[in-house]
Amino acid sequence: MTRRVVVTGVGVVAPGGNGTKEFWELLTSGRTATRRTSLFDPTGFRSRVAAECDFDPAQAGLTPVEIARMDRYVQFGAVAADEAWAQAELAPADPWRVGVSMGSAVGGTTLLERDYAVTSDRGARWVVDAALASPFLHHALSPAHLAAEVADRVGARGPVRTVSTGCTAGIDAVGHGARLIERDRADVVVAGAAESPVSPIAVSCFDAIRATTASNDDPERAARPFDRNRDGFVLGEGAAVLVLEEYEHARRRGAVMLAEIAGYASRSNAFHMTGLRPDGVEMAEAVRRALEQARLDPTGVDYVNAHGSGTRQNDRHETAAFKLALGQHAYATPVSSIKAAVGHSLGAIGSIEVAACAQALVHGVVPPTVNLETPDPECDLDYVPHTARERELRAVLSVGSGFGGFQSAVVLTRPERS
Amino acid sequence: MGTTPSPAELAGLISRCTGVAVTDRQLADPTTTFSDLGIDSLGLMGVLAELKRSHGVHRDVEMNTEHTPRELLAVLGQEVAR
Amino acid sequence: MSTAVVTGVGVIAPSGIGADFWPAVRDGRRALGRLGRYQPNPYPVVVAGEVTGFEPEGRVDPRIAVQTDRFTHFALAATDLALHDAALDPAAVPDYRFGVVTASYSGGVEFGQREIQALWRSGPEHVGPYQSIAWFYAASSGQLSIKHGLRGPSTVLVADEAGGLDVFATARDELARGARAMLAGGAEAPFCPYSMCGQLGIGLLSAGEDPDTAYLPYTAEAAGFAPGEGGAVLVVEDADAAAARGAPARAVVAGHGATFTGIGRFPDSAEGLARAARQALADAGCRPEEVDVVFLDAIADPRADQAEAQALRSLFGDRAVPVTAPKTGYGRCYAGAAPLDVATAVLAIEHGAVPPTPGVTGCRFDLDLVTGAARPLDVRTALVLARGLHGSNSALVLRRPETS
Q: Ketosynthase family 3 (KS3) domain location, by residue (chain A) (predicted)?
């Protein structure tokens, strides 16, 4: 018997709005939350634009002890988990049947960098001074800290895992979480991802390969997915967490089901750590397998939430992938990227996009691709420019593509479909 | 700042940055591209960044892997001339 | 449902590389020594397991070596050994049916320290193009898929030693979903100053200065573990696919279980480990009475060791089950530790011998701990236990394939 997986809670911490409600308002308003980098002085860096969260951990409900212990990305994840868990209204479930699946691409970058500057005397010594290190530095070595904190917040004692597949980690964490339920390892899984990479080391490593935008003069319009004049992504930060629940478990307790995780698949391009072949065949294969699991024909897809990072290569690559996987239906399907609005938060964005898809299903609204002014002949689908669009949505597809060659796809449907 | 690297020095720099063993003879061949040598876009970015840091090459200089090392040498010569 | 079998084993360990590994662990040879990767060493961790003599030259393509950290060098080299051992040509596996799942604890830390030093000492333009692909936890899975043309499902799990066990469950899961073969394993290279500076905060590393006594789990002298580097990658194949190409099944990846009991809450890990093991046994369709040997986590913290002993008691009652921790001979290799234990379990099944726990005498718990020399034993079912420093407990059951 197939165990189905539904979403019964959503929590988001994102640029431009903390909380799912504010996040959704931003996405559908056509505004963007990209601005000149303020978390550190970006003078001297090639890319000086970021999508930052206006986040006060104390105001968000974290205690001083938690704030001291948690790196910024863990704080995001904890707060998003609290919101999702509260929405799910799950009274004491069997803790051994509650799991966690969290994603992050680069984990504790913020603390690693802050402590590095101090212990190395700003790079002066190779053998750093351990006496100057934070007592929590060891948590920053490994993003497993995120999943552990989330697990303790919800009292999970079942399988707790951390997925770190670069920029697809947010989709993959949700996919792995759903599988834990499908395979009867858990009845409830808190799944999501968090990232806080807006720090000098992460910014400089994307500078070095020119993956991020150099449009520093117009920060609000720096991310331009599918636009002919796009010149790279805007680094973002944030978190999204979903409560995934086995369908019957949710039905029995009368829970509100926001969406069903109907299919998930991941494939590798085995091509290049950062480069993408223009044909998109591996992403198309991931999409096909996710649709197959969802028992959905390509024509059943009502909306595609694109990776849409706004790099030259990516947007062409996935446009080709959608045409391969959906055929002619690709031209009739709205496709949009929310990255112009909230940036590209590496491992977190996949979960943030899944959260956006859940909201899209609930509200029957497709969020737009902001900043799409000049069409690119190589990107010739319906990208829903500028303005949100009302539309009856039954099934939506979200995809991601990451360094390392990861290509992932997840299908969300309205849960009443059976 | 910086001095123009000789072909041999450039070959050494490329090998160090990309892991591809390159000879100065290969650098002189007008038809061999970076791509032909097995140097990918990331490798070439590393080479250019090193030349900009240590040899005074202007920061706006851009190349892709279909360019040849010989073209890079020509650029280096012009850079110093101007 | 498909059966997942191990057809190839590739080991890069302080005790030995490739075929040198089994004789070294079987004979209980010690490979711990004074940590030499950086100088000076002002930190209170001086005994470690290093893969001395491992250089990327000859084992890793120079073009890849410059763009990757040592932890990825280990993974690449271990994979070459595993594919050779399995006699498997990746090109012969149907497209999209060969994937990779690796575990990492701390990613490419040494590479990362070099680049972050360049940033802080000299400025952002001094950070090279490879930092973006060498430092992150996914570097090894990405490089392995590219090198071997693996376009199947690919993923990365992070949970210290427990993550290194969970990769085998993920590989098995992907085989059940249609993959024909998976690379599964992980390697760690945790010895650079900044990483060590972080590891000190864990509070579980041994400060002992004598390689013979620094890492003595289950004894009154237990005072932390000696960290190690290295790891293993295994080829896990669908049993029918392996049989079709005439590859011998070396062991069946039969069952897995996982729980969480919190960071540092070791007393709770007794129940967590026991439950994970019961899940794994149930998943494998076998009873606790059938377990012939247990490979232990061996954190060498008195509370952690006691919890592990309690978990075994809860599983086996009064029955004396041989247990062992070969890692006391070469160090606890974080995400590489469990893949090494799984490799060792496969070799124990093949060779009919349980390798000892080097250096440990005077076990303070009522355990049948194999010490001194290898114990000849007909191993049909092995249980591997692992805990993650961030609170996870995992268990994996490996079984000898039925001979038909």
A: 2-414
A273: nearest CA partner in chain B: B42
Q: How far is CA A148 from the centre of its chain?
A: 19
What average pLDDT does this structure show over C293-312? 98
Give contacts of B 21-60 with C, CB under 8 A: 21, 38, 42-43, 45-46, 49, 52-53
Q: What is the ipTM of this complex?
A: 0.98
**Is C367:C309 a contact under the CB 8 Å cutoff?**
yes
CATH (residue range C253-399)? 3.40.47.10
Q: Locate the chain C residue with the closest alpha carbon to B54.
A: C126
Catalytic residue among A53, A167, A357, A379: A167
Average pLDDT over residues C156-173: 97
The confidence band for A418, taking pLDDT boundaries of 50, 70 and 90, is: very low
Neighbours of C62 (CB within 10 A): 14
Tell me which chain A residues have a C-beta less than 8 angstroms from the C-beta of C131. Answer: 201, 204-205, 208
Residue in B with minimal Cα distance to A276:
B41
pLDDT digits (tens, 9 = 90+) for C321-340: 999 999 999 999 999 999 99
Q: Do residues C125 and B49 touch, judged by C-beta distance below 8 A?
A: yes
Q: Measured between CA atoms, how close is A157 to chain C, in angstroms? A: 5
Q: What are phi and psi of C51, to 5 degrees?
A: -85, 80
**Residue A363 a catalytic site member:** no
Q: Which domains does chain A have, with CATH numbers?
A: 5-108+143-413 (3.40.47.10)
- The C-alpha of C333 sits at a distance from chain A's nearest C-alpha, in angstroms, of 14
The side-by-side arrangement of strands in the sheet containing A34-36 is A34-36, A49-51, A235-236
Tens digits of residue pLDDT in A198-227: 999 999 999 999 999 999 999 999 999 999
The rounded Cα C153 to chain-centroid distance in angstroms is: 21
Binary contact (B42, A209; C-beta < 8 A): yes
